[in-house]
Amino acid sequence: MSFFIISQILVGLAALFDIASFQFTNRKTLLLALSISALLIAAHFALLEEWTAACLLVIGAG
Known about the structure:
mainly alpha
């Protein structure tokens, strides 16, 4: 399986976490879902060797 396919799977999972975050009423759970989403998208960009975007998302996830 190529890095491109894996990166697309990761961004798909991130989208699911984003959608799920709309369902949470607890602030900590919502922020956790958004942080996981940001880390998955960071991994997506890292696999595509887009280091600036990956670093910005890691910072944003924190």
